[in-house]
Records
---
Amino acid sequence: MWKSISVALVLGLAIPAQAQVPGMFHEQGTPFVAPGRAFSVNIPPSWGAALVQGDPDTIQFRNDRLPGHGSLYIRRITVPSGAHPRQMLLNALESRLGKLPGFRIAQKRDVRVAGHPAASVVGAYDFHGNAQYPRALEEIYVVAGTDAYVFHFECAEPAAGAYTKDLTTLYTSFQPRAPAT
């Protein structure tokens, strides 16, 4: 099951409600550019993007046509020069992920995203503490200079494989600090 998720991205914060924002829709076949040119990414067909209300540095991507209520959040944060993605991952495990009910790690590894160093963790937790409803999650931490990007994907664990192709498109097309057009 976990091998079918591929390299997933990270965010994993308490995530407030999302809101559609004017200009957030993009023409199919062109890269989506986040506000402030924070990053760009190719969004697969049938996926949408929404700015997370109260957090202008976080974008939610979701596809309501696939099973499992999956969402990918990408958040840009400023980090000190020399920050390392592995340290960000360890902090997340200690402060947030490790506190999820029944959280278990399936895989941790170093990866590269858009040529930048990154760290990934794949795991699962019991939704609302109920082992009958496991949620798969993947977080990826990318550091590009003094910008870091946290990718957080989660969905119902049995449906995780349905997202592999689309997540691969999102992850491999990601570019920090989108160029001006």
---
Amino acid sequence: MIIENIPYITISDEYSFSITACVAMLMSFHGYDVARFNINDRFGQLTISDESFNDSFYILNQKDGSNANRNLLVARTLIESIAPELSPMIVDSNIKTLRYSYIKRNIPIIVCGMFPLVSGRVPGAIIIKGYVGEYLIINDPRGNANTYYKSYYGENVLYSMNNIEQWVGGDNIKLLRLLSNI
């Protein structure tokens, strides 16, 4: 099963973070002309304004010192400021139930984690948009994590459930989902 019509956006000058590219992909999927919102700059401004996130950020449990949960919080706030009707929400889930809770209901989701490089790991965000067998179908704006990002093309890549569990967590992950009320 795959959710169709999610545009693929890579990390570029316009979207310098994987999380902003993922936000742009999801908002485009929901019919928004993301070019007019300057998502990258807004994300940067929200990230710098620490005071507005202190309480909420500490409520989110940060597992490994990455900025994954903070990025989800800032992305949610960004989407709320542009399109509150999309009802962005950060939800606790586990990787094994994603296909039944979201994908089968045509709800693509953003998850953040620490993805592999030859020299270590890099924080990033991906869109989970489908599954086949024990693999999830991913739009990864950085490229293909299976190749340690030596391949820069990350549209419709297959990541095994085992790899996703290692990279974003298995039993308790935070995800960002949008529900269109339009």
---
Amino acid sequence: MLKLKSNSSLVGTATCLSAALACATGQSMSTSASARPPINILQALQAHPGSSTAEDLKKTFGEPDIIKNVEQTGQEAWLYLEGPHRATRLSFLFATGTLTTANWFVSDSDSDCNLASAKEHFPAAHFQTHSRPWTNPHYAPAEDIYSDDKTGVGIVYSTSQQKVRSIYWNIPAGQLARKDK
């Protein structure tokens, strides 16, 4: 069960949630991905957790390919798919119509596969490294998470493949506390 209580519990949650939703079957999907030009990281960074609304993001990115209510959290997830395999490229989580988390899935052809390049998008962040926690006793995760709770930014880095897998940004910890009151 997913619980989004604080910013620190969001580390990796967006990646896990989006991956689970991307694998979901039987979801209605729009055809907007084929009509939409490819999204890049600079466009994705226009999404501002805490201030961007669902309507703002529809104007910027168009209709999402998958919309799913996440019952455990009371949030709504949007997925934007790209490529011949319709892989998740960008996902958003909303609470009461306001963006709480954005997650960019890095493609092998992106310059952001390089950790230093990915970090350059967030010059104000002071990243701390955390190993992804074990969730399966039969599998040791080979990922490090570079995160900064003050800015709400995180980068998931595959240590085995030596590349960035995803970049996420949340409502920063201080803002999240104020929104909960």
---
Amino acid sequence: MSCSFPRYSSVFSQGITNDGGYICISNGTFLTTDNYFNKTNGSNHGKIILDGTIVLLDSFVNEVTDVSENVFTDTAGGLGLGNGTVIFAKNGVQHILNTTSNAFINFENVQIADTSETILDAGSAGTVNGDLTVYGTFRLASPASGEGPSGSLITNTGGSVTGTGALYVHRHYATMNRYVYV
């Protein structure tokens, strides 16, 4: 599948719920939206062919029910290996959340804007196959109870991790019958 939208366009949305369909964002196209919800409808899982840029002004929630399905596909091999970019640009806290256990989001390139505090929520996982650029704050969270997996992020070879912002990994630990946030 390829995108047939005209190049060099901008689209603005108050929020997107992809209920099992394909969204194509071609090279040179900017899609700016508040929230993005990625869902499953029957056997169809929401997918984005991303060769352009998504600017998120709020959270990214992946609710697909099949952990083997990738959110981002592209014309460069289908596994999030293209040149598309997701920019987290909220003026405040925004979340990356997988609601299905063992699911992950396979990003191409990610940028955290200087105004954003982006949190990869506990139990959520992401892979950045290209560049991770952090100007704001990027946090990998753990459950407040200290039980269960933390948010996890993999950056694959071939990309880089750069920027002037901060990366944090948080973990709660049980000490003397209470959990301490580190």
